[in-house]
Amino acid sequence: MRKIIIAGNWKMNKDASETSKFCSELGTYLKKHDNERVLPLIAPVFPFLSQAQGILRSLPVAVAAQDVSSHAEGAFTGEVSAAQLCSLEVRHCIIGHSERRQYHGETDALIREKLLRLLENGIIPIVCIGETLQQREQGRTEQVIISQLEGCFDQITIAAGDQIVIAYEPVWAIGTGKTATSGQAQEVHALIRNWLQTSYGSQAAADIHILYGGSVKPDNIRELLEQKDIDGGLIGGASLKIDSFCTMIGLACELSSAGGN
């Protein structure tokens, strides 16, 4: 049975002291609220990954990077390699976020290279895909999602479903306050899982976690998590406040304990 992943993408927020404070408070919460079927995850900025790891070590939470270089090593100023993340014992990394696609011109082909580097180093990629508002209004959601999946996973071998995570993030719902309805989100998640089944087989498709991202918050996360193919959230703004983040973890724990998802 798949776990529920409550992932906080901090983007370019929180300094060193704010990171320490948040992680310490999160650690205190998790010591009293541990559920083996729920995995909390936070993604701080690069400089504070080790700091977060140190505070949260041995606790039931994962620390992820927000991006990785497509290169293994070399003269690439400002880049961080998968091997370097691995040396910090970082085991998850977000790639292909719509902001990287939009502001840095990242293509599916580039994201595929990053995916390969992560897999080579035993790091679980959280691969983001999603359509724009214009594409949805044009009725091209399915076409865009399948195209992104085919581009990012072109000739990629997945031996087991725990090797990757996919995050569906409709671009029109990121940071806008708009959220896909639970039905809209489930429809795309089912599309993704069907594609996985066709591409990698029924077992991998059943095991791979598919997260929803796009203005997820305490008010709407329960309804999203109740959907058959939604295995958690990749959360932006609402993950920056410790009370909000812990509330969402708690809701996931309640749902899990009640036999949901």
CATH architecture: Alpha-Beta Barrel
Indicate the overall shape: globular
Q: What is the count of DSSP helices, taking H or I runs of 4+ residues? A: 11
DSSP strand count: 8
Q: Spell out the CATH superfamily.
A: Aldolase class I
Poorly predicted runs of 5 or more residues: none
Terminal-residue CA separation: 9 Å
Please indicate the count of domains.
1
Element order, helices and strands?
EHEHEHEHHEHHEHHEHEH
Give the integer mean of the pLDDT values: 95
CATH class: Alpha Beta
Content of β-strand:
5-15%
Helix content: 40-55%
**What is the fold-level CATH name, i.e. the topology?**
TIM Barrel
Would you write up a description of this structure?
The chain has 261 residues and is an alpha/beta fold. The protein has a single domain (4-257), classed as TIM Barrel, CATH 3.20.20. Helix content is 43%, strand content 15%. The protein contains eleven helices and eight strands. It has helices at residues 16-30, 49-56, 82-87, 98-104, 108-120, 133-137, 141-152, 182-200, 202-207, 221-225, 242-257, and strands at 4-9, 38-43, 62-65, 92-95, 124-129, 165-168, 209-212, 232-235. An eight-stranded parallel sheet has the order 7-6-5-4-3-2-1-8. Helix 1 runs parallel beside helix 2 (49-56), helix 5 (108-120) crosses helix 7 and helix 7 crosses helix 8 (182-200). It is globular, with a radius of gyration of 17 Å. The N and C termini lie close together (9 Å). The mean pLDDT is 95.
Which features does this protein show?
8 strands, alpha/beta, 11 helices, 261 residues, 8-stranded parallel beta sheet, TIM Barrel
